[in-house]
Amino acid sequence: MAIKATIYKAQLQIADMDRNVYADHSVTIARHPSETDERMMIRLLAFALNVPADDKQGQLEFAKDLWDVDEPALWHKDYTDAIQHWIDVGQPDDKRLMRAAGRAERVTVISFSSSTPVWWKGIETKLTRAANLVVWQIEAAQSQALARLAERGMQLQLTVQDGTVWMSTGTDSVEITPRRLTVGG
């Protein structure tokens, strides 16, 4: 019998001053048995940093990337099912990213491993045609600190100002400074 996903729930209060997005979201996350707290929290961070201010053009949703190789970690589809924004976390290969760039209006990758510089150096030149791709790096120490906030039921506040992100639980807080690796997008 296959091991099932573990369900996590988060009440997320977002104050993103850089994008003028202020909202509360109730988020349910299905954590794949092979997924770590660190990766799951990066997916939650990706949701918070990319959720649109309203749902007039569709909604940002968690996808099934660990179950289905044709899906990202998150995607924003419009009401015609066209992919507006494809969001991957980790270190996807260049072929996956080029396919995503052809399918979606925008593609974002959030990499969080200490091996990110090696991964990026190996694929950077292969992605020059993907003008709609943006790659971000979260320092490993920051993503590991973020993982320590993971609980089955979470109350999280996320504040973004001048490119710096603070995620807190009320008793613990993590500062995250995403670093953009791409020039285009």
Sum up the structure in keywords.
185 residues, alpha/beta, 5-stranded mixed β-sheet, 22% helix, YaeQ_sf, YaeQ, Restrct_endonuc-II-like, YaeQ family protein
Protein described:
There is one protein chain. This protein is an alpha/beta fold. The chain has a single domain (6-180), classed as Restriction endonuclease-like alpha-beta roll fold (Roll), CATH 3.10.640.10. It has helices at 37-50, 94-103, 116-123, 140-147; strands spanning 6-16, 21-31, 59-62, 74-77, 83-89, 104-111, 133-137, 153-161, 164-168, 173-176, 179-180. It has a six-stranded mixed sheet. It has a five-stranded mixed sheet with strand order 2-1-8-9-10. Helix 1 (37-50) packs across helix 4 (140-147). The longest helix is centred in the first third of the chain and has 14 residues, at 37-50. The radius of gyration is 16 Å and the shape is globular. The mean pLDDT is 94.
Summarize the topology.
Layout: E1 6-16, E2 21-31, H1 37-50, E3 59-62, E4 74-77, E5 83-89, H2 94-103, E6 104-111, H3 116-123, E7 133-137, H4 140-147, E8 153-161, E9 164-168, E10 173-176, E11 179-180
Parallel strand pairs: 1-8, 5-6, 6-7
Antiparallel strand pairs: 1-2, 3-4, 4-5, 7-11, 8-9, 9-10
Distance, first to last CA:
43 Å
Stretches where pLDDT falls below 50 for ≥5 residues? Answer: none
Query: How many alpha or pi helices?
Result: 4
CATH class value: Alpha Beta
CA gyration radius, whole angstroms: 16 Å
The total tally of domains equals 1
Compute the number of strand runs: 11
Query: At the fourth CATH level, what is the homologous superfamily?
Result: Restriction endonuclease-like alpha-beta roll domain
Please, what is the average pLDDT? 94
| Overall 3D form | globular
Oligomer: single chain
Secondary-structure element order, N to C = EEHEEEHEHEHEEEE
**What CATH architecture do you see?**
Roll
Helical/strand content category: alpha/beta
Question: Main β-sheet, in a few words?
Answer: 6 strands, mixed
Q: What is the share of helical residues? A: 10-25%
Percent strand: 35-45%
